[in-house]
Write a structure and sequence with these properties.
This is DUF1853 family protein. It comes from Gallaecimonas pentaromativorans. Pfam families: DUF1853 (PF08907). The structure is a single chain. It is built from 5 helices and 13 strands. It is of the alpha/beta class. The chain folds into 2 domains: about 160 residues, no CATH class; about 55 residues, no CATH class. Strands 1, 2, 5, 6, 7, 8 and 9 form a 7-stranded mixed sheet that branches. It has a 4-stranded mixed sheet with strand order 10-13-12-11, with no helix packed on it. Strands 3-4 form a two-stranded antiparallel sheet. The longest helix is centred in the N-terminal third of the chain and has 16 residues. It is globular. The chain starts with a helix and ends in a 12-residue tail after the last strand.
Length: about 240
């Protein structure tokens, strides 16, 4: 999983892009326990990014998912506040890992609960500018922190054809999506959900049966490319992601 996170190209280019260091000295046993405590891909991605930064020798994590409150209400929680030990500067990092299927109307998540366009707008208007708000500045002052910039670390895959936007990062990962029964012949292997953010040799994956009750990611046993297979009628069917 660390290799996938460290090597996957950015999905979005909104503001400054965060560049991840190569894996360094990481306590894999402790990381494994943390990963075992959650099945949520977003939380696992955050844990993996934090492990890469901590083990790199370059970054010090000052805060992680720390809620900022003002006058009894929650303003938000920056994913990471880190210190770059080379420059001495403090940075705010937002992290996201997402998978979307292309439609004429936009990019829709496999669970049919979120759109890429909405996520991008939220990042641009709410998440990345969070620490520039006066209430957040007051909170930072109590910590003695003054972030020099906000960065976005975004990974994921876009499947199929959808609208093009200037904030899609050049070279982002792409695949196709197919309805069950319409996948071309080939050596297709099924990925468990946690393997969506892991580099897994095809030899370690079970053969795809050709049927699905919910969207499932598959890997070409020859090329290693990944695609999504959805139930017939998606996205107007009743089943979403597991």
């Amino acid at each position: 999983m660390l290799d996938w996170v460290a090597s996957t190209p950015a999905l979005l280019q909104i503001g400054d892009t965060a560049l991840l260091p190569a894996p360094g000295q990481i306590d894999l046993a402790a990381l494994g326990q943390q990963l075992a405590a959650t099945a949520r891909l977003g939380q696992r991605f955050e844990l993996l990014v934090a492990a890469l930064l901590s083990g790199s020798g370059r970054y010090q994590i000052l805060a992680q998912d720390c809620q900022i409150t003002a006058q009894g209400r929650t303003l938000g929680a920056p994913d990471l506040i880190v210190r770059d030990l080379r420059s001495g500067e403090i940075e705010h990092w937002e992290l996201t890992v997402k998978f979307y299927l292309g439609l004429a109307s936009g990019w829709l998540g496999p669970g049919k609960r979120d759109w890429l366009e909405q996520k991008a707008a939220h990042l641009k208007t709410r998440q990345l500018p969070l620490l520039a708000r006066p209430e957040a500045q007051a909170w930072l002052a109590t910590k003695g922190w003054q972030p020099a910039r906000s960065r976005l670390c975004s990974h994921g895959i876009l499947f199929g054809d959808g609208p093009s936007y200037p904030w899609l990062a050049p070279g982002h990962q792409q695949g196709q999506w197919f309805e069950a029964g319409k996948l071309p012949d080939g050596d297709w292997r099924a990925l468990a959900r946690w393997q969506w953010i892991a580099t897994t040799p095809s030899s370690e994956l079970a053969a795809f049966t050709g049927q699905c009750q919910a969207p499932i990611m598959v890997q070409d046993g020859c090329s290693g490319l990944r695609h999504m297979v959805v139930p017939a009628g998606w996205p107007n069917n009743e089943k979403g992601e597991p």
